[in-house]
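Obj.: predict assembly geometry.
Materials: sequence records (below).
Method: joint structure prediction, all chains together.
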Amino acid sequence: MRSPFASEATAFRFVVLTVAAFSIVLAAELLGGHRAAVPVWVAVSVATAAVYLHPRRRNRLRTAPAHVGPPGERRLIVVAQEPPPAQALEEIRDRADRVLVVSAATVPFLRRWTSDLDAAHEKARQRVETTVAELRNLNTPTQGLVGYDDTVQTLEDALRTFGGDEILLCPATDIHGDTLATRIHEQFALPVTRLSPTAAPPTG
Amino acid sequence: MRLGGRKSTLNPQPWPWAGPRVLIEQPDESRASSLVAGLRSAGFAVAICPGPLAGERCPLASEQDCVAAYGADAVISGLGLKSAAAREALAALRARLPRMPLVVEAEPAEVARWPELLQGCEVVPAPAEPHQLVERLRAILPREVGGHA
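Observations (raw structure tokens):
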């Protein structure tokens, strides 16, 4: 939904639209009484709702924070929606000086009101702990971060503190991974590499 | 100046990162990525604006606004001056944010053809290397935001 108060201009347009709508309803009332005004009011309301609910595609600007850490240190954020396979862990070790493993407790909207969120958070915590332990076994300095609800928001939090020069996705399924990769690519001006659960990441 | 183009589908958001912040106007994604890497290494947070799409206008040149531009410490304009929309975007940026440190990448022919548009800007020959842009930025930015000025 487009906010009518997103800017001064859109708020002004909303005021003009509101005045125009009331004028039309008032004119209908004066000309035809209640029997004309009510359907006109309904029609105007539906038209206004259609204008603001229309899902107009608008693109954010992609952003990235400044490099964090010593010059030349390569920091990698691994989004572990499932634990990376062993081969991928070695690839991660080879391409990063420091790693942050993040995972968010993603729960479908309709199930957020149940205790599923706690269970999902626990699963995310386990994924992070497992991956962090495995990377540390490979002598890679690694930290972990568990987020609530939204992976992209968790990534933003991670970038704010840890920094990060590249984002590596280890998604649970192809469809989810593609959607997530697109969202991340549209928001962050950083290289995003999608890691299939059975394949090593591409180089470059 | 109104060219009659559609409103932009760009939706600039407030910066989520601490400064110094550089807005990079660059339509070429691979070149933007290269600039991002260089500027981030030099300590700048970055945002990439691809510029107005064909038939659209820059938010700054329309009734919309650009919080990313207002929140930036400097802007690197790499849109060129060949298209009317790009020239309008540059003119709007200079009109709305006259004190914004601005580095413009431009070809010699563009500099010769639109000198009034570039007057007072830090102009570098296009395409500039990331380290050249970092040097120019540091030369024009005040010390408190990572510059030497």
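Conclusions so far: Residues 8-53 of chain A form one domain.
To do: check interface contacts against the pulldown list.
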